[in-house]
Design a protein that fits this description.
Layout lengths: L2 E3 L9 H5 L5 E4 L2 E4 L15 H5 L6 E3 L1
Antiparallel strand pairs: 1-4, 2-3
This protein binds iron/sulfur cluster (2 copies).
């Protein structure tokens, strides 16, 4: 149960990193990655995955 970032679409803007309530997102090379062990799909925090909501590139933060 986690989200993932499609690396080929990620611009590395870092918007998602600071919005994640579980600090599950970090930089890896030029793009960002989600640690599936930390990601809860925002359950208990938001109705929808925050990373997907704030990401300016549609379809980049998706269910793994
Ligand atoms: S779905 Fe929520 S918990 Fe998971 S990486 Fe995105 S912002 Fe973080
Ligand atoms: S908000 Fe989207 S484009 Fe920006 S770093 Fe996160 S996944 Fe990449």
């Amino acid at each position: 149960m986690s989200y993932k970032i499609i690396a080929s679409q990620c611009t590395g803007c870092s918007l998602c990193e600071f919005e994640c309530p579980n600090a599950a997102i970090s930089m890896k090379g030029d793009t960002f990655v989600i640690d599936p062990k930390k990601c809860t799909e925002c359950e208990g925090h938001f109705d929808h995955a925050k990373c997907d909501e704030v990401c300016p590139v549609p379809g980049t933060c998706v269910k793994a």
